[in-house]
Write a structure and sequence with these properties.
By secondary structure, the protein is mainly β. Helix content is about 0%, strand content about 45%. Strands 2, 4, 7, 8, 9, 12, 13 and 14 form an eight-stranded mixed sheet that branches. A five-stranded antiparallel sheet has the order 3-5-6-11-10, with no helix packed on it. A hairpin with a 7-residue loop joins strand 7 and strand 8.
């Protein structure tokens, strides 16, 4: 049965205060801190104790995930060597591990896909684990480790070696050259079946062929026109409204984005400056993210 949430609070917070050139892409934005001492071995113990773990939750192809036991995944990103390399970590919790040495087809084995577009207007490069199999694409390093119902992955990706980077003079991550970026986790629960879940950090499929379908990554501390809207939803008895789909979109337009509250009933979304609206049931709220202001 349906209970209407009575506590719907939203705050719009501007993360930083001035505008720099940005690309629209799919709206997902990450801020990468400078990191040192990261060894690419699949062991994440050399990462900071409190990295910004970004949830990977958008089902863009295949069948829905069957609850948290079936699949949960997060990623974190930083940069190293004066911004010339991206450092990426992915954590996956999965109750069934499917690996087949005879196939690397994406819908037949568990896997992780990383997409990077150094120039913001070229085709993304794809770096992919298919089960325990990995093929080096350029000069990147990659590693994974498996535990009980968990997998951890790491990448070190030099930006200058990506397609188009040398021609565009892009050697490092900067405010002038944010990088297109996205992460996908593929979950397969039974070998030799067609059922799979293709779950992404940012919205939209076809990330390899459409650079507008990936997110953006900036170095930490860079001013940009990115802000954050945070909404907290609770039932009449005070319990959190968990896993509720909230519709969002540009003000005056269609509600084309769908975002899910977490286990605490909180939805948090980074957006470029502009006017937006969100809807929960029959309730609609408009809000604005503007440079040099907090709403």
């Amino acid at each position: 049965f349906w209970r209407s949430p009575i506590n719907f609070m939203a705050a719009v917070v501007l993360l930083v205060g001035s505008t720099v050139p940005t690309a629209a892409h799919n709206g997902a934005v990450a801020h990468a801190p400078a990191l040192e001492g990261i060894v690419i071995d699949g062991d994440l113990s050399d990462w900071p104790e409190d990295p910004q773990w970004l949830p990977i939750t958008h089902l863009e192809a295949g069948i829905p995930v069957n609850g948290e036991k079936d699949l949960q995944a997060w990623h974190a990103i930083g940069h190293g060597e004066d911004g010339t390399v991206l450092l990426i970590a992915v954590r996956v919790e999965d109750d069934v591990w499917v690996d087949d040495p005879n196939t690397v087809y994406y819908s037949q084995v568990d896997g992780v896909e990383i997409y990077v577009d150094a120039t913001h207007d070229d085709q993304s490069s794809q770096f992919e684990y298919r089960g325990s199999h990995y093929t080096v694409e350029f000069s990147e390093e990659a590693a994974m480790q498996r535990g009980e119902n968990t997998q951890t992955y790491e990448w070190r990706i030099p930006l200058a070696d990506l397609p188009g980077a040398a021609e565009a003079g892009i050697a490092r991550l900067s405010s002038e050259h944010p990088v297109g970026y996205d992460v996908v986790v593929v979950d397969v629960d039974q070998a030799n079946q067609r059922d799979y879940s293709w779950v992404a950090w940012g919205r939209y499929p076809s990330k390899l062929f459409s650079t507008g379908y990936v997110g953006d990554v900036y170095p930490v501390g860079v001013d940009s026109d990115i802000g954050t809207v945070e909404a907290s939803l609770h039932w009449a008895d005070g319990t959190a409204v968990r896993r509720l789909q909230v519709k969002m979109g540009e003000a005056g337009g269609e509600l084309t984005w769908s975002h899910q509250t977490d286990e605490n009933g909180v939805l948090r979304r980074q957006l470029h400056a502009g006017s937006y609206q969100m809807a929960v049931g029959q309730d609609t709220m408009r809000f604005t993210i503007a440079p040099d202001s907090v709403s």
